[in-house]
Specification:
- By secondary structure, the chain is of the alpha+beta class.
- The protein has two domains: about 70 residues, no CATH class; about 180 residues, Muramoyl-pentapeptide Carboxypeptidase, domain 2 (2-Layer Sandwich), CATH 3.30.1380.10.
- Helix content is about 40%, strand content about 10%.
- It contains eight helices and eleven strands.
- Helix 1 crosses helix 2.
- The longest helix has 24 residues.
- About 35% of the residues are buried.
């Protein structure tokens, strides 16, 4: 009886882990199932098999398959287009359609600094949610970091939070939170460490936004209305307020193309 109970608990644990990996990475659940099969047939330990299979999928198998679905991987290592940290490419959250990838690479030519990306989209299927985002599900969206100055007022490639999210430019409640939209400033719990000495580099952030706006593919950019005013972009209709149903956008730029 005890043996059957333990087998049942292990089954539930596997199911929960598969769900977790699927929500986090889209394809991680399939990789774990394959790990179970390989480990059982070869009598190898899953904790040894899983990272090897995972990296093979991440680096070698998924990118060419994703191309068949109209998605391409944003680079891990590039001189001017980089992820905030390893988490985004390692969890398959750095896929976009070819038009958006090419647009980002071309936008770099108008800037003299690196563009740092955060969450983009998963490699497969329109409509598959990339949580906690509401709309990163079609290969046409990507989040980008603002540009910052260090404590001496000099340009730096550093970012104020380890995740890229949650470091709000304006340290105050916003109208949406004041009106009861509790999720609006939820990203403050997702920063995973902060560097409070950095401040917004308005000149370079404005240059980045102008570079993105110069592209005809750009459909809309979400930042907070007060930042739109501060950066003197009031007349640009493609820079919009995302609404209170979403989260604050004074910690990152949300870019989407047509």
């Amino acid at each position: 009886m005890r043996s059957k109970f333990m087998s049942f608990i292990k089954l539930i644990a596997h199911i929960l882990f598969i769900i977790f990996l699927t929500v986090l990475t889209q394809v991680g659940g399939i990789i774990w199932l394959l790990t179970i099969i390989i480990s059982k047939n070869k009598d190898w330990k899953k904790r040894h098999v899983f990272p090897i299979v995972y990296l093979i999928f991440n680096l070698l198998l998924i990118p060419p398959i994703a191309k068949q679905f109209g998605r391409e991987r944003l680079p891990w290592f590039h001189n001017d287009l980089v992820p905030r940290n390893w988490f985004y490419p390692l969890t398959f959250r750095n896929y976009v359609n070819p038009e958006l990838k090419q647009m980002l690479i071309e936008s770099i030519k108008n800037c003299e600094f690196k563009i740092t990306y955060l969450d983009a989209c998963f490699p497969f299927y329109n409509g598959f949610p990339l949580l906690p985002h509401l709309s990163h599900n079609d290969g046409k969206k990507v989040d980008l970091s603002f540009m910052y100055l260090n404590k001496d007022g000099k340009p730096t490639e550093q970012k104020p939070s380890n995740s890229g999210y949650g470091a709000f430019i304006k340290d105050a409640n916003m109208p949406c939170t004041d009106n009861g939209h509790w999720q609006y400033d939820f990203p403050k719990y997702l920063s995973f460490g902060m560097n409070t000495e950095l401040q917004l580099d308005k000149k370079r952030t404005r240059a980045l936004l102008k570079a993105l706006l110069s592209k005809s593919e750009t459909q809309s950019i979400f930042i907070e209305p007060y930042l739109k005013r501060d950066l003197k972009l009031q007349n640009e209709y493609r820079i919009r307020f995302q609404g209170c149903h979403s989260v604050r956008h004074d910690d990152h730029i949300h870019l989407q193309i047509k």
